[in-house]
Request: fold
Amino acid sequence: MSDETKALIDTQYDALRQEITTQLTQIHGLELAALGAVGGIWTWLFANAEVNRLAWFVPVVLVVLGAAKVSALFLSVRIVGRYIAAREASLFTQAGRWETYRQRKSARLVVFGVIFWALLFVATLTVALWQNIIASDIEPSASALTLKCVPNTTVAGNGITLSCSPIDTGAAYDAGMP
Reply:
């Protein structure tokens, strides 16, 4: 093999390894960005209760889009890694093949990535559904609260105290929510 061919192979190998490193950095950045975006959106939504309930699905959409981008990056890393492994097989003995070794160990990275995105998806979908279905059924009404007095009792709660005497028996009181 000529020196020119070796130099070309070295340059190509360095460029491909740099591409893999860049893509893995992007994957990590997307994971952090997704967590930050979901947390920020949830914080804003919890602080602004009057927003459209469909806004709770924005984090779900972001997670799906982030997972799709990460899947594309993982696929690209895998393609480049296989190419490098094939080139290494023709140039080195088994002991000198980094990419072949790395491919066996990188399955854990993929599994942890899948678990991360799956858990984030389940969490965002659960919160969105909770806010749209379950929470809407249990939210307190902003209308007045009507209490019925039972003789010789005192009712206290939410800053309201009502005392009923025998004269008040059966009377209804309108206690507006504070």
